[in-house]
Design goal:
single chain, alpha/beta, GIY-YIG endonuclease, Rossmann fold, 5 domains, 6-stranded parallel beta sheet, 31% helix, globular, binds adenosine-5'-triphosphate, binds zinc ion
Length: 696
């Protein structure tokens, strides 16, 4: 029996790293959560090991907290800390049971044997003989159940020995729109059957492969996941399904809940604290064996996973923005490996990395037999204005159209016509965007907002120009076509009702940012439009091509399901850009081949490990100095390069292109060590550091 626990106290300080030794409380093990005295603080801590010996004088934990983590998640947390140059404490914090809620306990009433007898007697004798009122008889009949508002009446029956009342946990179940809607399970197409067979064949082996389900839009990938999930449950194994942001893809949850019912737990930020806690507990106890959720659901406390699915694996939301900057796709792969589960990443527009690393299974056709819509590139070079006349004509003809413009708000920026002043965010080096309906100009980076200016504070002119058009303006302009126009972007709080209204409408236009291109399945969209295909292409970023190809292909994929003659128009000032040209030809193989060649030539992922270190500071010059110091410790790294000021902080970055494979870990450690050294130096006390491994 080992008497000592090693723990990681959960603090955010980068410098502080455990493990620290404490006396082992009874019944604790790896994964137990404790409250420990730590210096002058009391901290939550996770037990990461139990040992026999310690060189220190040991303190005793203050108490054992409820809900332990499973041991495999503790391993995962420690791996996460190393893989993403973070600390064990920060990584383990991501895995904790949801905070801010406890089990909900309510009073539960059930009949005693006397109560049962009374019910039977009542049938013969009638209620009055037993001195029960009609209401009391009915109450007794309805047991067992939670007491609720009838507690008073039940207490009187309890006093007569007919009822027993005691506390009992009561689940707070999330409301699903799909409850009770059991959609019929369609027979699989031959392609789907082949894909399913490939998944199940490798799932049954000792070391299942990692698969990429590369299926064109509308090829029925979800049905393949559902069948694979059913087979996995039959084998007694659990299923984890990761999806992009939940609010935008309610259909996925609906399908899983519709097919598997209560064994599905959902984990996402829109749940109340109590619901989230209860879902976590159901997963932890094994009461729920399927979990559907976004990025953070990759940490669901599940036992004996047999299948891990990453749907729409190209989606940017799988990368965490906070520290550790983990990539849920890599974590999913790690979890699948830990459990001997098969990993299935699915997409119509997979990332070059996935094509390179995973075994590909294809769904080359749409399930409904429809062909891909014809894509026409509209050259914007000689046509000023947001909507080209050709596009306008097509919109007039279309019955149901989706229009993508990746800029929200009314106009992009404001200038003074007299002195040229540009309205900028006081915290960030970016222009403020006009949101007319909110009567505000706002920063899309920090959320700063101010009233729409009436006069220029520099020169007093009242002539202020609005430049460019965003989704809000477009919504307004397209209303002239005499059809309902619906808008979907980050300013719209609830996507569900908008999507539902569009689905129901006989004729309508859906306008929005890239969320309109996500995996929505509308049967009768006859026109798709990308208004500014160059917007993503212009980003100074090695993923610009990949993102543009995905956006155009995904938007095109929403059109023409189940009906012939659908069209897609892509407006661009760069008609020969490969990402746009390949997307217009529905040629993902051609695109991927070219993109992988380019990445190899430039040593970008998957041919290198990209590590980005960003130094920031509120004090002038400190970020650049810190980045220079880091650069000096990382021979061959690029930078330091200034980034635009964000939230009042100057920023400077250093980028390291490390090797892949066995050398990757050393490169991460080298970057981590450089950051630790520099952050410990008093000269850079005013700087903050972020390390992004596999930077996007
Ligand atoms: N075998 C089948 N027979 C008939 N209908 C099917 C079959 N499989 C799937 N479907 C239906 O086809 C539609 C498209 O399927 P699904 O949304 O899964 O496609 P997808 O491959 O995920 O597309 P995307 O990549 O665009 O999200 C859905 O309405 C689904 O119910
Ligand atoms: Zn700002």
């Amino acid at each position: 029996m080992s008497h000592i626990v090693q723990v990681e106290p959960l603090t955010t300080a980068r410098a502080l790293r455990g493990p620290f030794d404490y006396v082992r409380p009874d019944g604790t093990d790896v994964g137990s959560l404790l409250e420990v005295p730590f210096g002058r603080q009391r901290l939550t801590a996770v037990v990461t090991g139990v040992v026999d010996h310690s060189e220190h004088r040991l303190a005793a934990p203050l108490r054992v907290l409820p809900d332990a983590l499973p041991a495999d998640l503790v391993d995962l947390g420690l791996w996460l800390a190393r893989e993403y140059a973070s600390t064990p404490a920060r990584a383990l914090s991501l895995l904790l049971p949801p905070r801010g809620a406890r089990e909900r306990v309510q009073l539960w009433a059930h009949r005693t044997p006397d109560g049962d007898a009374a019910i039977q007697a009542e049938a013969h004798l009638g209620a009055t003989e037993l001195r029960l009122t009609g209401k009391q008889g009915a109450l007794l009949q309805a047991l067992p159940r939670f007491a609720g508002p009838d507690l008073g009446a039940l207490r009187r029956l309890e006093a007569r020995g007919l009822v027993e009342i005691g506390p009992r946990g009561r689940r707070r179940a999330p409301q699903h729109t799909a409850v009770g809607i059991r959609r019929p399970q369609p027979g699989l197409t031959a392609d789907q059957q082949d894909a399913l067979d490939a998944i199940l064949a490798t799932a049954a082996t000792d070391r299942p492969e990692r698969l990429l389900l590369h299926g064109v839009t509308g090829s029925g990938k979800t049905e393949v996941y559902l069948r694979a999930a059913a087979a996995t449950l039959e084998r007694g194994r659990a299923v984890l399904i990761l999806v992009p942001e939940i609010g935008l893809t309610p259909q996925m949850i609906d399908r899983f809940v519709g097919r598997f019912g209560d064994t599905v737990a959902v984990l996402h930020s829109k749940l109340g604290a109590g619901e989230r806690y209860d879902e976590w507990r159901r997963l932890r106890s094994g009461a729920a064996r399927v979990c559907v959720g976004p990025r953070s659901a990759v940490f669901a406390p599940m036992d004996r996973l047999g299948l891990v699915v990453v749907d729409e694996e190209h989606d940017g939301s799988y990368k965490n923005e906070g520290d550790p900057r983990y990539d849920a796709r890599l974590v999913a792969e790690k979890r699948a490996l830990q459990h001997g589960a098969v990993l299935v990443c699915g997409s119509a527009t997979p990332r070059p990395e996935s094509v390179h690393a995973l075994r590909r299974v294809r769904l080359p056709r749409r399930v409904d037999g429809s062909s891909m819509p014809a894509v026409e590139i509209v050259d914007l070079r000689h046509a000023p204005g947001a909507v080209h006349p050709r596009t306008h004509e097509a919109l007039v003809d279309a019955r149901k159209a989706i229009v993508l413009l990746n800029r929200r708000g009314w106009s992009n920026f404001l200038t003074c016509r007299s002195c040229g002043r540009v309205w900028e965010c006081p915290q960030c080096d970016v222009a403020l965007v006009l949101h007319r309906s909110q009567d505000r100009v706002a920063c899309h980076h920090c959320g700063h907002a101010e009233a729409v200016p009436g006069t220029c504070p520099d020169c007093g002119s009242i002539s202020i120009a609005r430049h460019g058009a965003g989704t809000e303006r477009l919504e307004h302009d397209l209303a002239a076509l005499g059809r309902p126009v619906l808008r979907l972007d980050a300013d719209v709080r609830h996507a569900g009702p908008v999507l539902a209204a569009f689905e129901r409408a006989d004729s309508a236009i859906l306008v929005g940012t890239q969320v309109v291109a996500k995996g929505h399945d509308f049967p009768d969209v006859d026109l798709g439009v990308v208004l500014d295909a160059d917007a993503t292409l212009r980003f100074p970023d090695f993923r610009a091509e990949e993102r543009t190809f995905a956006l155009v292909t995904q938007l095109a994929g929403r059109a023409g399901r189940g009906n012939a003659g659908a069209r897609v128009l892509v407006q661009t000032i760069d008609p020969t850009a490969p990402a746009i040209a390949f997307a217009a030809r529905h040629d993902s193989d051609g695109f991927l081949r070219g993109e992988l060649e380019r990445r190899e030539a430039l040593r970008y992922p998957p041919f290198s490990t990209l590590i980005r270190i960003v130094c920031s500071s509120e004090s002038t010059g400190v970020a650049h100095a810190a980045a220079t110091a880091i650069h000096a410790r990382l021979p061959g790294a690029l930078g330091p390069a200034p980034l635009f000021r964000l939230r009042g902080r100057e920023r400077s970055q250093v980028v390291l292109k490390g090797p892949v494979g066995p050398g990757r870990r050393a490169a991460v450690e080298q970057a981590d060590a450089a950051v630790r050294e520099v952050s410990a130096d008093k000269a850079y006390k005013a700087a903050a550091f972020s390390v992004d491994v596999d930077a996007q």
